[in-house]
Specification:
With 416 residues, this protein is mostly helical. Helices cover 71% and strands 0% of the residues. It contains 18 helices and no strands. The two termini are 41 Å apart.
């Protein structure tokens, strides 16, 4: 039987630590711009987050209990009582307007762990640079770096999830990476991090737009201005950005994953039955046609190998949008399961695809691997599918990091 065992922050202890607490929970809290008597402190966030997690555990028991336990629950009414108490705690002392905000936020939490899995995979998965990373570093350093960076990425993602569940509640919801920063380090750093995340998303969108433009340019055999090709995908991403919630973006994210997998399997077949794209390799590296050379440890200059390492680091980037994904989940505790499955799939695809393509193309491997086949028709198939999946990924980044959200966040922080 689950009971709510957390205790309210001790007023005397909080007075000593912060000098801001007057009468513990008896005083109203500031929840988002309304004039209340005091602002929440760190202990408030932790207390209400613990109460929120206890409520979620109670809700889980109500759903998963056996018939006998449900009969006992019906006769005792204990779970209903605990659940009602926990819900009331989240709105205790709030105005009607703030209660409406809390209820609206509760209604927004509808995504499942499967939706989070698709969003995480769409956010991170981008295996088409993996063969290039192996070209720059060789077999042994490439595998070791993907393992090491994958472990670091998993730790950082799990740490973000842990901070989220320790600080988020219906009363004080965590809606973004910047919210976590503010609660841990204060408002000045929140403003700084908000703009860093915004710039990060701009770079992601720019990278995706350039990759899509390169595919379109190759499809048209150079009969379109490259700048126009970039602008086309920026306009397409602007329309996709009108999808305002990640839950509604989930079905697009799932389709992007399957398109990426389709490109991977097709290009694996193409690479095995096509000579390398010698002309593109000559233009990119100055390498003349000849036998394929593979290396256990690459002998390229140091800066070339560092470029390959940076490709591996970038391949695992994307954790900054995890709080937004968790914020729309019905059960935030399930995010770790979704993220673990996504990370395992991503790591497997990176290592398999990188080793496979590099083994066939060696020093002729291009930065976008599927463009390294010599048959134009095969290039076009992969390019078209990559255009669609890249467009979806760019729309996801735009949904998270648009200018409007960044400006609203900074203004709200400065007004508080």
């Amino acid at each position: 039987m689950a009971h709510l065992t957390t205790l309210a922050p001790d007023p005397e202890r909080l007075k000593e630590q912060t000098g801001k607490v007057e009468d513990g929970l008896a005083q109203p809290y500031q929840t988002g711009g309304l004039s209340n008597k005091r602002k929440p402190v760190f202990e408030d966030y932790v207390f209400f987050a613990e109460a929120q997690r206890a409520l979620e555990r109670i809700e889980d028991l109500k759903v998963s209990r056996s018939i006998g336990d449900k009969c006992l629950q019906f006769t005792s009414g204990l779970l209903e009582s605990d659940s009602s108490t926990s819900r009331h705690l989240q709105t205790e002392g709030l105005s009607d307007a703030d209660v409406d905000k809390v209820n609206a936020w509760r209604a927004l939490r509808q995504s499942s762990w499967a939706g989070a899995f698709y969003l995480c995979t769409t956010d991170i998965l981008g295996p088409f640079n993996a063969p290039y990373a192996f070209r720059q570093n060789g077999y042994v350093p490439g595998v070791l770096l993907y393992v090491c960076m994958g472990a670091c990425a998993f730790y950082c993602g799990a740490l973000l999830w842990w901070l989220y569940v320790k600080l988020d509640s219906d009363r004080f919801p965590v809606k973004s990476y910047s919210d976590i920063t503010e609660r841990v380090a204060g408002k000045p750093l929140r403003i700084f991090v908000t703009w860093l995340v915004f710039i990060h998303m701009i770079v992601n969108i720019a990278t995706t737009s350039l990759s899509s433009a390169q595919s379109l340019y190759q499809i048209t055999k150079g009969n379109i201005c490259f700048i126009v090709a970039v602008v086309i995908w920026i306009i397409v991403g602007t329309f996709l950005n009108q999808i305002r919630t990640l839950k509604r973006y989930g079905w697009l994210a799932s389709s992007a994953i399957w398109l990426n997998l389709l490109v991977i399997f097709l290009s694996v077949g193409f690479v095995a039955h096509s000579a390398p794209n010698y002309s593109s390799a000559k233009a990119a590296y100055g390498v003349s046609a000849g036998p394929v050379v593979k290396q256990a440890f690459a002998s390229y200059p140091f800066y070339d190998r560092i470029n390959g390492v940076m490709n591996i680091v970038y391949a695992y980037g994307g954790a900054t949008i995890f709080p937004q994904i968790i914020a729309e989940m019905r059960r935030p505790m399930d995010f770790l399961k979704a993220f673990s499955m996504a990370q395992a799939l991503i790591f497997t695809i990176y290592v398999f695809y990188g080793l496979y393509v590099y083994s066939f193309q060696g020093q002729f491997t291009l930065p976008v691997a599927f463009q390294g086949v010599s048959h134009y028709s095969w290039q076009t198939v992969s390019n078209v599918l990559n255009l669609v999946s890249g467009m979806i990924a760019g729309g996801l980044y735009g949904n998270i990091g648009n200018v409007e959200k960044a400006l609203q966040t900074v203004i709200l922080v400065l007004m508080q």
